[in-house]
Design a protein that fits this description.
Pfam families: DDE_Tnp_1_7. By secondary structure, the chain is an alpha+beta fold. Helices cover 21% and strands 26% of the residues. It has one domain. The strands form two sheets. It has a five-stranded mixed beta sheet, with helices on one face. A two-stranded antiparallel sheet has the order 1-2.
Length: 135
Amino acid sequence: MCADCETGMTLNLQMYCGKCSGKEDNQGFRVVRDMVLPMLCRGNKFTVVCDNFFCTLRLSHYLASCGCQLLGTMRINRTELPDEAKTIKGRTPDTTIFFSKGKCKLISYFNEKKKLVLVLSTCHEKNEIEVVEQD
């Protein structure tokens, strides 16, 4: 589903009706492209926020070439990720490593629970983290 975050209106919808007979390569990329294509044809510029099924380096480059932005979590088993971003061994908890490729920034965060979180973004220019204390 593609929705406007300000109005909550659904802009585009694609139903998932179960597995097809064959395996589809790059399904996540195709689904996001199909969802945003009508808005791209109108010349709209926007930010796509997606989860780790849809978020890929290929999608971020595609959206950047259209003048749009991407923000999403990534799966650790993506082949396009640098090995250093996926490595947990030897990392101190609560540390962050930044990687750049063109307009894409990959943030590899190893949290206090010893879980690795990968975030891909084309939405920012600075390699800074703002730490916010929660009560």
